[in-house]
Design a protein that fits this description.
This protein is an all-alpha fold. The chain contains 9 helices and no strands. Helix 1 runs antiparallel to helix 2, helix 3 runs antiparallel to helix 4 and helix 6 runs antiparallel to helix 7.
């Protein structure tokens, strides 16, 4: 009996060390990431997107490489604020990387849906700004077409759920995207711009798009 007790007491420190090396580092990094996330959220809520963006990116980098959900959460939040800061094309690139298939560690469906919605909004605001900046459909048609496709996909998926909490939102965004493609440039220019569009215009989003020569 004493030998068994001695064996248990010897194994306890080994178990603690095993837990520390296996999960301790990940938990410590998660705490650091969460702290940066809270600072980023505070800046975003205050409308200080320029300050929020690097904090969200730092939160992603602070998370453990294997903590994909925490890193994805920070990436989506960063892309949203990058869009609001006036760089929607850069935000779209960030989400494209996140949505690349990963069979070994796939994202949950709700994360994928939110990432697609964030991507669609980034493309919508990019297209909106480029429609104001240039009359050439080559500059904005692919963005608005992709935004329409994504919002339609999200809406059709959402209406199949029992509560359909986001169906009306996706429907409104889909309608707005279609309307953006059809509205004349002069009419768009005469209307008040959404804040994200105004920020993108200030950054000159059309000049940052790489267009393939015909």
């Amino acid at each position: 009996m004493k030998q068994h007790r001695l064996l248990v007491w010897c194994l306890i420190p080994l178990g603690i060390l095993f837990f520390h090396f296996l999960y301790g580092e990940q938990l410590a990094l998660a705490e650091d990431s969460a702290r940066l996330q809270r600072l980023a959220q505070k800046a975003e809520q205050a409308g200080n997107y320029i300050k929020a963006v690097p904090l969200y990116l730092a939160a992603e980098n602070a998370a453990h490489p294997k903590d994909r959900l925490l890193r994805a959460r920070a990436r989506i939040d960063a892309a949203r604020t990058i869009t609001m800061a006036g760089a929607p094309l850069e935000a779209a690139e960030q989400i494209d990387l996140l949505l690349k298939p990963n069979r070994q560690n796939p994202l949950p469906e709700n994360f994928v849906a939110e990432a697609k919605a964030t991507l669609a909004m980034a493309l919508y605001y990019a297209a909106y700004a480029m429609r104001i900046e240039t009359a050439s459909p080559r500059m904005w048609q692919s963005e608005i077409d992709e935004a329409v496709r994504l919002f339609r996909e999200l809406y059709l998926s959402e209406i199949k759920t029992p509560d359909k909490p986001l169906a009306s939102l996706y429907a409104r965004n889909l309608e707005a995207s279609i309307l953006l493609a059809r509205t004349r440039r002069a009419e768009l220019s005469s209307q008040p711009f959404p804040p994200a569009t105004r920020a993108a215009l200030e950054q000159g989003v059309a000049s940052k798009k790489k267009v393939q020569p015909e």
